[in-house]
Design brief:
Belongs to the iron/ascorbate-dependent oxidoreductase family. This is Fe2OG dioxygenase domain-containing protein. InterPro entries: DIOX_N, IPNS-like_FE2OG_OXY, IPNS-like_sf, Iron_ascorbate_oxido_reductase, Oxoglu/Fe-dep_dioxygenase_dom. Pfam families: 2OG-FeII_Oxy, DIOX_N. By secondary structure, the chain is α+β, with helices and mostly antiparallel strands. The protein has one domain: Jelly Rolls (Sandwich), CATH 2.60.120.330. The strands form two sheets. An eight-stranded mixed β-sheet has the order 1-2-10-7-12-5-4-3. The protein is globular. The C terminus is likely disordered. The structure holds 2-oxoglutaric acid (AKG) and fe (ii) ion. 2-oxoglutaric acid (AKG) binds next to strand 5, strand 7, strand 11 and strand 12.
């Protein structure tokens, strides 16, 4: 059954509780969008079997879905802390660049802290990104590692408590998804006896888990393009909070986008929607969840880590500054990225390569910040398009 037949494709008239964010122009009805399943966290945590099945299907077929966080206490707490972090991120980004660059730790070999505008490489020809990042380390906030230098606006007790709550709530949601995957994957007995995916992602174990604040200023109309280059995420589960469009996924050939309700796509948007690319419509009350390369490795290609990128938001949204908030859940630093299922180690990684999560993340994250680093920082992008995540 095609993916889109299952998902109630979000359209503007469907639910005023879900469409649009205060004071921002609406997401336009003129562009093709991704047919993402909407999965309810409340149903998942109450072990609703039909919901679990849909979530498993979404993980295999596209590796992207909406997670409705409404209707349960942990989900509502996460939504409210995400809102508070949007406010905090504004305070941080208002700092002068000279202050923000003090927290760029690339030279120390760390991917936490600040990445300035244009400091990342978005394609093989060395094109520059069009956004700023700030990465907050889970280990720093939870006291698992030493504290990194941070600006005063992020260092107060209240702000750190907010980050801590957001990390714990996000990690719990990611764990719910991984518990489901643990029950569905044909794991080797040894892996199952050791507790499956959960113990590889312990909150208290040193890891590359992080919060990311993203800011992308409006782009020049004439040169609107890619703000964050196409990539797969290199961790296990990513939670994304988007208010403006701009996130795009590249659908596998077997999947069709939801067609626009009305005409009027700009030329730039048409160009940005070639080759299977389409937009992800942000929905209020929902996070966008996607799976990363580590889960492709653990599952030997049975779930999908799909290519995505960020371009200028469509329609009138392109005139606004784009903010987004991300939580990356990653395996513990010492975890070796290899298949946990019964059929060897063939897909989703270079054969014979025993790499730990920490080595893999450093290679990928810092590679994207060097000229000429694009190819060597590659993940499972090729594989994810090729295998289609459909290996049974
Ligand atoms: O900003 C977004 O919507 C997506 C960001 C993203 O894909 C990433 O930071 O890995
Ligand atoms: Fe990403």
């Amino acid at each position: 059954m095609p993916h889109s037949a299952h998902s109630s494709s979000p359209s503007p008239s469907q639910d005023s509780q879900e469409e649009g964010f205060a004071s921002l122009p609406p997401f336009p009805s003129t562009v093709p969008t991704a047919p993402l399943f909407r999965i309810s966290l409340a149903k998942l945590t109450s072990q609703d079997e039909a919901e679990q099945e849909r979530c498993w299907q979404a993980c295999r077929e596209l590796g992207f879905f909406y997670l409705d966080l409404r209707g349960c206490t942990p989900g509502c707490a996460l939504l409210s802390d995400a809102d508070a972090l949007f406010e905090l991120m504004r305070v941080f980004y208002a700092l002068p660049v000279g202050e923000k660059v003090k927290y760029d730790f690339k030279k120390e070999g760390s991917y936490f802290g600040y990445k300035g505008y244009g400091e990342g490489i978005v394609d093989a020809s060395g094109g520059r990104d069009r956004n700023e990042f700030y990465n907050v380390s889970k280990d720093d906030v939870l006291g698992v590692s030493a504290r990194l230098p941070a600006p005063a606006c992020l260092s107060g007790r209240k702000e750190r408590a907010l980050c801590k709550a957001f990390i714990e709530e996000s990690h719990a949601v990611c764990s719910t998804v991984m518990e489901l995957l643990s029950t569905r994957l044909p794991l080797r007995e040894e892996a199952r006896n050791q507790g499956a995916l959960g113990p590889l992602h312990r909150l208290q174990a040193p890891s590359g888990d992080q919060i990311r604040f993203v800011r992308a200023p409006p782009q020049e109309k004439r040169s609107q393009g890619v703000a964050l280059g196409e990539h797969t995420d290199f961790g296990s589960v990513t939670l994304l909070f988007n208010r403006l469009g701009g996130l795009q996924v590249r659908l596998p050939p077997s999947m069709d986008p939801v067609a626009p309700a009305t005409d009027g796509m700009s030329e730039t948007e048409q160009t940005l929607c070639q080759d299977g690319w389409c937009y992800v419509r942000p929905l209020r009350g929902h996070a966008i969840v996607n799976l990363g390369d580590a889960l492709v490795k653990f599952s030997n290609g049975r779930v999908r880590s799909n290519i995505h990128r960020v371009v200028a938001p469509p329609g009138r949204q392109g005139e606004e500054e784009r903010w987004s908030l991300v939580y990356f859940c990653r395996p513990g630093d010492e975890v070796v990225l290899r298949s946990l299922v019964g059929d060897g180690d063939a897909a989703g990684g270079e054969e014979g390569e025993d790499v730990t999560a920490k080595e893999w993340i450093l290679r990928r994250a810092l590679g994207r910040r060097e000229v000429g680093g694009w190819e060597k920082s590659g993940g499972t992008e090729e594989g994810s398009m090729r295998a289609g995540g459909m290996r049974g």
